[in-house]
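FW: tagging you since you asked about this chain on Friday. Here's the raw sequence from the shared folder, copied in full. Didn't touch anything.
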Amino acid sequence: MNRNQKIAIGCGTAGCLGLFVAIAAGAILYFYFERQPTVRNANRNSNFNINTNNRGSNSNTSTDSSDETSSSSSMSDDDKHKLFQAAGAANDVAIMQKVLTRLGLLKADGSPSDDYSEFVTDHITWMLKNSDFTRTIDTPEKARAYVDAHIDD
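HL: got it, structure written out here
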């Protein structure tokens, strides 16, 4: 291999690395500027009652649907981010869906909730500040064990 070939390989490698850094920076900036302020009320509930009386028969139907985010209202933000990070580190789609549902970030139809984008943006900042936690779940097995232990907190 001559000198010019070595230079070409080095430049190609540096170019690819630079491209990855640019993509990561672009994604972070996109989520940062795309973030829209939302009303933060995790305890929204709705009740719907129907009472009918037709010719002496009684029918009473009552449904109580709580907003999806209320299921995670007892968890602190730090705990939510830890659970989300562990689910990602587990490399298991089923675990990730379970955690997203638990955190109220996944709708019943499987699409992301309105809060998903904001949470992921906040998670990037959280992840940069909490690298010690990331090191404690450095294998898929440790990550799964963390999720199993904390999914019902």
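FW: The chain has two domains: 1-34, 73-150.
HL: agreed, and The chain is about 55% helix and 15% strand.
FW: great, closing this out.
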